[in-house]
Amino acid sequence: MVNLEDLKKEAKRILEEGKIKYIIGYERSPNGMMSMPAFIKNPEDAERLTWDPSCVYNLTRFLVDEKRRKAKEKKPDTRPVAIVVKGCDSRAVVVLLQEKFINREDVYILGVSCEGAGVVDEKKLTEKLKGKKADKIEFSEKDHFLITSDGEKIKIPAQEILAERCLECRANFPVIYDEVLGEKVERRPEDPFKSIERIESLSKEERWAFWKEQLDKCIRCYACRSVCPMCYCDECVVDTISFAVAADTTAEEKAQKIKWIERSPDSSENFVYHLVRAIHLAGRCIDCGECERACPLDIPVRLLNKKLEKEAKELFDYEVGFDPEKPSLASSFKDDDPEDFIR
Amino acid sequence: MADEFEPKIVAFLCKWCSSAGSDLAGVSRMQYPPNVIPITVMCSGSMSPLYILSAFKKGADGVLVSGCHPGDCHYIKGNFYARRRIALVKKLLEFIGLEPQRFQMSWVSAAEGTKYTQIIKDFVEELKPIGPQTKLRRSS
Ligand code: SF4
Ligand code: SF4
Ligand code: FES
């Protein structure tokens, strides 16, 4: 079991040594059951850090922000930033390293074990507690969560309130770290692509009806994009829509800024947005589920990415986020990649 | 004769092989259905999935991506990258419920005018029974 005191001690130590710029971790939220991101600069604040099954956020998104901020500074502080990562999040760090978006020396990785369980789904937990608030969410022995609510302690089987992605997780222990807390408890999902197979088993028209209903809800707020650590492009095709054509717009400008997608939440535009998003994340999405969690309309966007994760595995034997030295899915090929679909 | 549905096909042809192959079909006066809107791209590897989605959005009933045979790409490896990318696009389109017949890929060399005409004939025949593509088409 991760000893929280060990995490705090380690955090305090690295900050006191002065080799770390700050720590990106989790702290308890003053109003709400779930933990929230914490940015710790001073050693005495290391006390605030927490690690429990309510730490759902994938904090690696903040590494992207950090890089951007640093790029703008005249005399940037070049010390590494420390970050607390779960298994899934650590795979996001691997992808950022693989794509050379960040360098290994820019980050100090504090891995935490999910103790053979994972993190909770806030909605599932709320339902389970029938609207009551949980004051504390803890890992408990083997596959259970210990919830403290209204002074009462309840044990809930992890399977019942785990986040969807945790049910299909294949790395519930960090795959890369400088320091790791907690034991490596293997928990292999019986079927890592169960959610996808469920949709695949539907008929073509049923699949269409399902996605049409889901994607038509999208209001194009781009929360799913903002929250994703892999959506770090400086320019996104989706944004060329803000380009206004005026009388003095040159042909060159028009050719450079093609309006591929309209911002209006029209059904067809929504499909194009979501398909492009999924394809650009193929071989890069590590299934942290943040896109789905951030969506205000409960659209299961994660499933589009998961489908491509499944295809990458089945067609190209490619697994995302385990090896930073490996060429990426889209920048490599094998001579015998399948081509039975080609005429 | 009643108005038969004539599918619109957008064909993205690489400049060095498939486009030349379609030209050969043309100059050799081979007969094939006029349903194709050919668009020359430099290489099948330069195909952005966005081109494909755009074509569907703008009302294509079918989309074809065609490049040089493996080993023959003018840029050596372009079609190998394309093969991977297009496979994923195809799987994804099927996953959301688009008819699999609507999106095809082929290898057509500069000498294969006959193969090109056959691909187009088959494509048209496969699209006719499933009717117009309305799923991804923009309504307004
Ligand atoms: S977060 Fe949800 S509503 Fe917002 S753009 Fe993404 S899918 Fe659409
Ligand atoms: S697409 Fe969603 S699940 Fe995948 S890395 Fe981005 S936020 Fe995480
Ligand atoms: S030039 Fe024809 S596929 Fe690359």
Question: How does this model look, in words?
Answer:
The complex is a heterodimer of chains A (343) and B (140). Chain A has 343 residues and is of the alpha/beta class. Chain A folds into two domains: 1-189, no CATH class; 193-338, no CATH class. Chain A has 13 helices and nine strands. In chain A, the strands form two sheets. In chain A, strands 1, 2, 3, 4, 5 and 9 form a six-stranded mixed β-sheet that branches. Chain A has a three-stranded antiparallel β-sheet with strand order 6-7-8. The longest helix of chain A has 15 residues, at 302-316. Chain A is globular and about 60 Å long. The N and C termini of chain A lie far apart (55 Å). By secondary structure, chain B is an alpha/beta fold. Helix content of chain B is 37%, strand content 16%. Chain B has four helices and four strands. In chain B, strand 1 (9-14), helix 1 (18-27) and strand 2 form a beta-alpha-beta unit. In chain B, helix 1 packs across helix 4 (113-127). The longest helix of chain B is centred in the middle third of the chain and has 18 residues, at 78-95. The radius of gyration of chain B is 15 Å and the shape is globular. Classes of the chains: A alpha/beta (343), B alpha/beta (140). The A-B interface holds A 199-200, 204-212, 237, 260, 266-269, 271-272, 275-276, 278-279, 282, 304, 307-308, 311-312, 315-316, 329-331, 333, 335, 337-339, 341-343 and B 49-50, 53-54, 57, 70, 77, 80-81, 83-85, 87-99, 104-107, 119, 122, 135-140. The structure holds iron/sulfur cluster (2 copies) and FE2/S2 (inorganic) cluster. One iron/sulfur cluster (SF4) binds at residues 227-230, 281, 285-291, 302, 305 of chain A.
